[in-house]
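Subject: design request, 80 residues
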């Protein structure tokens, strides 16, 4: 984590209670619990974006393969 900044947010009491419970169990600060949750959210967002990118790329590759197939059969008819 590069640099720290303060953040003031309003959070439902039950989530604060949960953060406090986790902090106590793990012997870390409430801030670290929140930071960990935000880091996990950022990781999930990146993974989702990568999965979408791979899907788009796979669709493009399939489209190109379908387009190139007739030419490939013409050049190398033994390819089936």
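Subject: RE: design request

Done. Sequence follows.
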């Amino acid at each position: 984590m590069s640099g720290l900044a303060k953040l003031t947010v309003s959070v439902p009491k039950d989530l604060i209670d949960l953060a406090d419970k986790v902090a106590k169990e793990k012997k870390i600060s409430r801030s670290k619990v929140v930071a960990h949750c935000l880091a996990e959210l950022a990781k999930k967002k990146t993974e989702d974006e990568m999965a979408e990118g791979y899907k788009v790329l796979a669709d493009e590759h399939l489209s190109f393969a379908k387009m190139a197939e007739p030419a490939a059969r013409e050049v190398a008819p033994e390819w089936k």
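The mean pLDDT is 92.
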